[in-house]
């Protein structure tokens, strides 16, 4: 990336730059950490690089199973080139085990394993604090077509299936995760954003004390431990698994 690449958008954890090809963008990962709708903020040296490496490998793994993603190729240690997308303003959350907000909003006990993955949809809007949506409300605000929502649901469940097995291979339990989608220049639904410990919960299955050991952003949210150490552990396990297969 050179100095002439125009900054298109800056979010909490990433910057999006224009690419020489108008159908591509450069996604650069930041060292910033935020929680509770950016009410809690900090910066961790090396976090952007780790999240970038993890996301690249997760996207490439998903693409090997024919999951459409915006990832094209690597451009640096902290960035990659992706398809330029028209982002759909929905955050799609998959829950395999009850933890976090769902336990605060319901009488479901933390650690409850769902018989089937639960999918929640949230409106991507910081000013409204990303409210939970029903299917009827999604139709009412008209941010996505019915067929597109069906496709998103189908792709999301497939992602959950693929990554649950992937993380199990490296002794991690995929508790829940958030993904975002967009439309590419051909109008096709594509997985966008990132997939890193910033937007999923991963529990360490190597922990043998019977307690939950988080290797994700809960460490930052709840002041539970060293965020970089945990992210580095995830990245190392992924790299070792990839090199052995």
Topology of this protein?
Elements (H helix, E strand, L loop, with lengths): L6 E4 L3 E5 L5 E6 L2 E4 L4 E4 L3 H17 L7 E6 L2 E5 L2 E2 L2 E8 L3 H5 L7 E11 L8 E2 L1 H7 L4 H24 L2 E8 L1 E3 L5 E3 L8 E5 L13 H4 L5 H18 L1
Antiparallel strand pairs: 1-2, 2-3, 3-7, 4-5, 6-7, 8-13, 9-10, 9-12, 10-11, 12-15, 13-14
Helix pairs in contact: 1-6
Describe it.
The strands form four sheets. A five-stranded antiparallel β-sheet has the order 1-2-3-7-6. It has a five-stranded antiparallel β-sheet with strand order 11-10-9-12-15. The chain has six helices and 15 strands. The mean pLDDT is about 95. Helix content is about 30%, strand content about 30%.
């Amino acid at each position: 990336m050179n100095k002439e690449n125009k900054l298109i958008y800056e979010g909490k954890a990433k910057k999006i730059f224009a690419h020489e090809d108008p159908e591509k963008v450069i996604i650069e990962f930041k060292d910033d950490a935020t929680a509770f709708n950016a009410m809690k903020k900090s910066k961790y040296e090396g976090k952007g690089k780790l999240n970038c490496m993890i996301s690249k490998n997760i996207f490439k793994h998903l693409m090997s199973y024919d999951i459409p993603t915006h990832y094209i190729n690597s451009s640096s240690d902290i960035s990659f080139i992706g398809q330029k997308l028209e982002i759909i303003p929905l955050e799609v959350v998959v829950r395999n085990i009850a933890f976090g907000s769902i336990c605060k909003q319901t009488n479901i006990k933390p650690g409850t394993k769902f018989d089937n993955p639960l999918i929640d949809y949230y409106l991507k809007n910081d000013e409204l604090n990303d409210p939970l949506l029903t299917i009827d409300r999604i139709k009412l605000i008209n941010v996505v077509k019915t067929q597109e929502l069906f496709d998103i649901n189908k792709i999301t469940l497939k992602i959950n299936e693929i990554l649950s097995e992937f993380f199990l291979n490296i002794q991690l339990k995929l508790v829940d995760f958030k993904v975002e989608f967009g439309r590419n220049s051909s109008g096709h639904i594509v997985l966008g954003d990132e997939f890193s410990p910033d937007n999923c919960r991963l529990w360490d299955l190597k922990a043998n004390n019977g307690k939950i050991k988080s290797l994700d952003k809960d460490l930052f949210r709840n002041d539970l431990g060293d965020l970089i150490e945990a992210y580095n552990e995830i990245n190392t396990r992924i790299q070792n698994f990839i090199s052995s297969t």
